[in-house]
Amino acid sequence: MAHALALAKARMLLLPRMEENESKTVATVKGEDPHANVKFVECDLGNLDVIKDVAERIRESKDRLDLIIADAGVGVDAFALTASGIDRHFGLNHLGHFLLINRPLLRKTAALLDTPAPRIPPRPGCIAPRRTRPEVEENGWNGKCFTEAGKLSEESKQAQDPELGKNLWELSAKLITTKLGLDGLLSWDPPESYARL
């Protein structure tokens, strides 16, 4: 994905889970285009305090953010806790992204004139960027899920369960506000699909 965005001359901020991943990605992208606008931003997705701080620094230092690709994660291995005291798998694969997406510049960007409101996919793996390519609209792919590039797939029964999604949203919000205080999470509503319950 970083390669395609670099070719499109996008400004990229990479927040990888591990610094060695950043070095490899930046080196590869810069090797293909030495003028690529790519920068590493250190962010421990297992530390809610760090995520909140990094998101605020990005919001204060940049004028807009058009797309977030939240795909950092870990596989299921031995049980461990994050720096915030949360199950490592849940913390890195979901909760860190949940907080990062809640805090950012997307809100500031959405307030700009002639800028469509940001869309947050109701479920992971779904297409819901702020601005979509014409073929996404033409093929009716908005909100659809893909497991491989260009291959439409069916969502699991769990992904289709609005009650499960609502419960996950509420649990995520409660964990973050418990760990960071009431100002840890900016006010926002669950996606429309959850609100219809």
Q: Which terms summarize this structure?
A:
two-stranded parallel ribbon; 4 strands; about 200 residues; mainly alpha
Characterization of this structure:
The chain is mainly alpha-helical and 197 residues long. It is built from eight helices and four strands. The protein has helices at 2-7, 19-32, 48-61, 88-102, 106-110, 134-138, 162-180, 192-195, and strands at residues 12-14, 38-40, 145-148, 151-153. The strands form two sheets. A two-stranded parallel ribbon has the order 1-2. A two-stranded antiparallel sheet has the order 3-4. Helix 2 links the parallel strand 1 (12-14) and strand 2 (38-40). Helix 3 (48-61) runs parallel beside helix 4. The longest helix has 19 residues, at 162-180. The radius of gyration is 17 Å and the shape is globular.
CA gyration radius, whole angstroms:
17 Å
> What is the helical fraction, as a range of percent?
40-55%
- Whole-Å distance between the termini? 35 Å
Given as residue ranges, the uncertain stretches (5+ residues, pLDDT < 50) are: 121-132, 193-197
- What does the main sheet amount to? 2 strands, parallel
In one word, what is the shape?
A: globular
Question: Brief overview, please?
Answer:
The protein is mainly alpha-helical. It has helices spanning 2-7, 19-32, 48-61, 88-102, 106-110, 134-138, 162-180, 192-195; strands spanning 12-14, 38-40, 145-148, 151-153.
